[in-house]
Write a structure and sequence with these properties.
This protein is an alpha/beta fold. Helix content is 37%, strand content 14%. It folds into two domains: 11-245, Aspartate Aminotransferase, domain 2 (3-Layer(aba) Sandwich); 248-366, Aspartate Aminotransferase, domain 1.
Length: 367
């Protein structure tokens, strides 16, 4: 009998940290303090240290982390922010929420990340920030991107939503840009029990601005310095994340071991496998393959009990939300080709060996 494999199962992640999580939930419930309390401060301190930087600021979700990060870097009406053509739409939405314009630049077809060699041609007098994404948990080429930013007097905000525990040339993702934006959505590599987000930075002034912006523009209760937002990571989620942080290294090792098996045992198939750039250690949030008959492959795998997902079926420039950019099919051909062919295979910490075997066997049978 074949083994059914879901795309994702979060129960093993809870089981791995259950005593610590349960104790954390009970501790917060008994404390009587649920926002901007000691649990949040403790998690912020621990996460900043984990990322190898100075400050972490808890926020309500990943989109807010991107948006407020851009605001803290001074992005506003009429500015431009360079974004990858190939990403989840939240990266673009954060720019739009600032009143700025997302300027898409094509990605490297091998890594799916922003191609540094194409950035300078897109820079104008209005460009304020470069916004690379560590897509699928594969670190972007941050040395090249930071060098371009320095040459042009720009800031860098990296979208780390899928890259918890990823490493770039010996440095943790989250310490590589002026500001790093994080999502702690439940399905992320470090996931809360609801929505959550945050930002990391070595810049004390930027961290201070983020703390003001997240709390109605206020540093002192009922005194508002700027027009701020309500974007606070609550203490329940912070306590859960702090408890799970202790297991993030082991969980990432599991992801890397599963990815290594996939890469080894699917080598030579009529399938484009992920490319790992030199000097990087991906977090393997997703294991994404490409196939020219992606939809047929997805259907065939489903018939064998293997669930998959598409990250992502429609690129941002072809979404109705960005019709005002006036872009159409053929304008960003690399991104469009990727979106037509990518397929994400099951991969999560706690995945059983027989489930990994089932995925490999099904892929071999279907391509």
């Amino acid at each position: 009998m074949s083994v059914a494999v879901p795309f994702l199962d979060l129960k093993p992640a809870y089981a791995a940290s259950q005593p610590a999580i349960d104790a954390a939930l009970a501790r917060v419930a008994a404390s009587g303090w649920y926002l901007l309390g000691q649990e949040l401060s403790a998690f912020e301190t621990a996460y900043a240290a984990y990322c190898g930087t100075t400050h972490a600021v808890g926020l309500a979700n990943g989109l807010d982390a991107l948006h407020l990060g851009l605001r803290a870097l001074g992005v506003g009406e009429g500015d431009e922010v360079i974004v990858p053509s190939n990403t989840y739409i939240a990266t673009w939405l954060a720019v739009s929420q600032c009143g700025a314009r997302p300027v898409p630049v094509e990605c490297d077809p091998a890594t799916y990340n922003l191609d540094p060699t194409l950035i300078e041609a897109a820079i104008t007098a209005r460009t304020k920030v470069l916004l690379p994404v560590h897509l699928y948990g594969q670190p972007a080429d941050m040395d090249a991107i930071n060098a371009i930013a320095t040459r042009h007097g720009l800031k860098v905000l990296d979208d780390c939503a899928q890259a918890h525990a990823a490493v770039y040339k010996g440095r943790m993702v989250g310490s590589l840009a002026d500001v790093s934006a994080w999502s702690f959505y439940p399905g992320k590599n470090l996931g809360a029990f609801g929505d959550g987000g945050g930002a990391t930075t070595a810049d004390t002034a930027v961290a201070d601005q983020l703390r003001v912006l997240r709390n109605y523009g206020s540093r002192v209760k009922y005194h508002n310095e700027v027009k701020g937002y309500n974007s606070r990571l609550d203490d329940i989620q912070a306590a859960v994340l702090h408890a799970k942080l202790a297991q993030l290294g082991d969980a990432t090792d599991e992801r890397r071991a599963i990815a290594a098996r996939y890469l080894a045992e699917m080598a030579g198939l009529a399938l484009m496998l992920p490319t790992v750039a030199p000097g990087t250690e991906p977090a393997w949030h997703l294991f994404v393959v490409r196939h020219e008959a992606r939809d047929r492959l997805q259907k065939a795998l489903a018939e064998r009990g293997v669930a998959t997902m598409i990250h992502y079926p429609v690129p941002p420039h072809l979404q109705p939300a960005y019709a005002e950019l006036g872009m159409g099919p053929g304008d960003l051909p690399i991104s469009e080709a990727i979106h037509a062919e990518v397929l994400s295979l099951p991969l999560w910490p706690g995945m059983q060996p027989e489930q990994v075997d089932a995925v490999i066997s099904a892929v071999k049978a279907c391509v």
